[in-house]
Structures are given as structure tokens and as C-alpha cells.
Amino acid sequence: MDCVPSIPLSSISQLYPLLDISAQSVRYKSLIENFHSIYPNRSPKFIARAPGRVNLIGEHIDYAGFGVLPTAIGRDILIAVEITENDKRVRIANVNGEKYKPDSWNFEGKNKIVEIIVDVNVSKWSNYFKCGYKGILQHLGIDDPKGMYCLVDGIVPSASGLSSSSAFVCCAALATALANDVNLTKKQITEISIECERFAGLNSGGMDQTASIFSQIEHALYIQFFPTLTAIPVKLPTITPPIAFVIANSLITSDKVITGPIHYNLRVVETKLAAYDLGKTLFGKECEHLRQVYDMYSQTTEVKDSQLEYLSNFVDKHYTELKKREGYSLDELSVLLNFSREEIEEKFLTKFPVQAERFHLYKRSKHVFDEASRVLKFYEICQADGKNDQEIIKSLGELMNQSHKSCKELFDCSCKELDELVKICLEGGAIGSRLTGAGWGGCTVSLIHEDQVEKFICYVIENYYKLRFPLLTNGQLKDAIFATKPGSGAAIVEIK
Ligand code: NG1
Ligand code: MG
């Protein structure tokens, strides 16, 4: 079920609510002024906006096919756009022109669309725009696109697990669709954005793009990928005192496109290898991802509640019996899966480059089943009425803590600074704290009573930032640690 009605994009005010920009009107105004000075005699026709997200729970399980629970944050990407009929050139500039240099390219015919290439080896900021642009043109077979003048203003911290990349891809897709006057539903825009962000070299799941497009103010989003993409808004529990989420950046940057072969893309492959092994072992069938293993198992049992737990226990038993809790070399995998080394490379390791000495099937699959089960519990707690407030917040916090432990110990996607930051956050009064996003650096998210946010932030500044990054200015500190409320998803601002 698509829980948002399929309205054509032309009904933009229904699909992408026209923003109340009063809170940020200075930023919008200055974007327009900047536009005029960068592109003299031109005026933007609209501003597309797409937010970053913070994942509350459900890490590294979207690409394994399991549901996740993020929420949009207030920090977003804006793209001011003017359209021209005179040529098919795209010009893109950034308000932070020092750091992000202008770029432009020509559309040279439908068959050459692949050449609007996103060169993975050159880590260029405009690549993400090209992903969204190329995705829309390719998907719709547009061979006569409009020319575009674009100016970008992004305030989602980059390389920190808050999804600046997906916000940018979604925003570019939205801007391109609108500039070319095409009718697309939210679900279509999301699916195209998911698909086309992979042009940038990461075999990513779909959580970030869905959160950026579908989020609703004051709600988290329960996103499922099977049997089809759905996004259900989830009201977070209203308790006394109210709860808040604080994002704290470890300030260790992790550029996943660069480290993809040893981190992100490798994890995707490890979960797929585990799915293949478990599918064969349990049902004699080839499974593509762990969700498929779960679905097959569901069909064989009446017990609906504890299926993930069963599978989690099964991987314990299975890899203990095989004496393979510590992973497989390529040669050992070839024995396990009954493929030659070449077949394994061909089937699992070529689509996106991967480098590894050992492949951890046990630890990754165990994390995925346990984390999927934590997401369901988190979602259920949010929906349950009448529970004692203290009990609710304690259970949510506990699930977040377990999630971090599992990311650290089973999924190996934390780092020492993130672990230290989580520890400090808990000492500073957080009820739950965990890394958010892909990890290996980037941000943590902490659950906290709203009335303690200020004290909490001071504690973390004293004990993390002042010690590790003593030279940070107050402005930089405000960017590094801040409270966030579930914000709204992508939107369009018409400029009259
Ligand atoms: P971040 O860290 O925000 O880029 C990435 C993936 C998600 C998800 C998380 C881990 C992309 C675009 N996003 O998020 O799909 O797998 O890691 O849960 O690669
Ligand atoms: Mg990203």
C-alpha cells in the first residue's frame, strides 16, 4: 500500500507541501539574492527542498530488506532553479563557492545519457546532483530536457551519517522532475532516487531517500521495503516530561564512497553471502537477501512472534557447529557455498568493488535479525497506549543501547570515538544512545528528557568536544551537537 496518494507532481502543493518558510525566511531570501548575483539577469522559479534524516533505530538492515525507523531532521538541502528553453545545459553553483566549485554540463542526446557520468573516482560534490538528474531523465526517457540554472545551499553536515548525500540526490531528482514538468508520485521519486544514488558507487539501501521524501512533521517513519515500499508515519510517545533526540557528531568523517570496498559495500556483500548460505541450509533455495530467508521461514511456521529470534538463534547454532564464527576466507567460502572462487567473485564481488581477507557471515546475519526485531519492538512501543511513561522511555532507550552494542560488536561499523561519545552521552543523562547512519564515524543520536537537553549538551561539550577538539568555535559546536524534532519531508517553494 502506498500510504500517500499517488498525486501527479503538478499538484505540487498537495504532494510537496508549500513550506512555511518564515522560520528560515532569511536563508531563503539570501539564496535568492545569491542567485541573482551568480546568474545576473536571471530569477529562480522555484526552490526544491529535501531534508537529511536521523535514523532512530534499524541500522544496516534496509539493504537486507528489513524495516527501519528514521525521521527527517530540520537540516536540509535547498536548490533554487531557473529553467531555460534556450539550451539543454545544466549549471550548478553552491552558496559555499569556496568549498564547492561550480560545474556545468550539456545534455547530448538520449543515447549519451549514460555519459552524464558520475565518476566514482572523482569525489565531486556535483556528482550527487548528476545522480538525481540522470535518474529522472533515464527513467522517463526524456531526450529533450530543459536547461537549468541551479544554486545549492546545503546545511546537512556531510559524511556524518545524516544523509546529506541522499538529501541532495532527492532534491536534484525533484528539481529535475519539476523543471521538466513530469508527473511522478512520491513513491516514484523515491524509487528513482534510491536507484540513481547507486550511480555514485555505493550499493545502498533505500532508507534515506524514503525518509527525505516521505517524512511528516512530528512523526518518525516506519519504512518497509517488502513486498513493496511503504512509509507509515509513527507518532512518538507523548510522555511527561516530553522526550527529545539530540544528535552529536563525533567529528570523525567517514566518506563511504571512498571506503566503500572495505566498509559499506563489503557489509552488503557479507549479508548477501549469509542469505545465500542460510537459504541453502534451511530450505535448499537460493536467497538474495536475509529478508527472503525470513519470508521463507515464515511460510513454514505458525509461530508468528518469534521468527526473527528463531533465525538469530539458528545462526548461533549453525556457525558454531561449522566453527566459523570468525568468518571465511575466499577459499573457505568456496567450500561452503560450493562455488569456485571465480564464481563467487562473479556472483557477489563484481557489481561494486569489495576488498576483504575474511567475510563475516555469522556476525553480520546475527546483527541483521536482532536489529530487525528491535525495530519492530520500537515501533510497537510507540503505538502502545496506556503504558507507564517511565517504562516506555526506558524500553526505547534500552533498544537503542542494544542497537549500538550490536553495531559495535557484530557489525563492526563503529569506531573508538563513536563508542566514547555514546558512553559520554549516557553519563550525561541520555536514556539511550547509539551511532546513527552507516557509522565508522559520523553522528550519534541520544534519547533524552526534553527538560534536560541543555544540561546534557553542556556535559557532552565539556567531556568530548573540549577535550578532543579544543579549538572549536561556538558556531562549530552548535553544528556539532543539537537537539532535533521530527521534521517534514521534501517540499517545493514557488517563487512568484
Ligand atoms: P548514511 O550513513 O546516511 O549515508 C547509509 C545508507 C542507508 C543505510 C545506512 C545504514 C546510503 C545512501 N545510505 O546511510 O541506506 O544502509 O547507511 O543503516 O548509502
Ligand atoms: Mg550518505
From TrEMBL:
Residue stretches making up the Galactokinase N-terminal domain: 34-81
GHMP kinase N-terminal domain boundaries: 127-215
Enzyme Commission code(s) on record: 2.7.1.6
Designated name of the protein: Galactokinase
Ranges of residues in domain GHMP kinase C-terminal: 393-465
GO biological process: galactose metabolic process
One GO CC term on file: cytosol
Similarity comment text for this entry: Belongs to the GHMP kinase family. GalK subfamily.
Catalytic activity entry: alpha-D-galactose + ATP = alpha-D-galactose 1-phosphate + ADP + H(+)
Pathway(s) per entry: Carbohydrate metabolism; galactose metabolism
Cited InterPro entries: Galactokinase, Galactokinase_CS, GalKase_N, GHMP_kinase_C_dom, GHMP_kinase_C_sf, GHMP_kinase_N_dom, GHMP_knse_ATP-bd_CS, Mevalonate/galactokinase
A Gene Ontology molecular function term of the record: galactokinase activity
Statement: the UniProt record of this protein carries the keyword Transmembrane helix: no
Keyword annotations: ATP-binding, Carbohydrate metabolism, Galactose metabolism, Kinase, Nucleotide-binding, Transferase
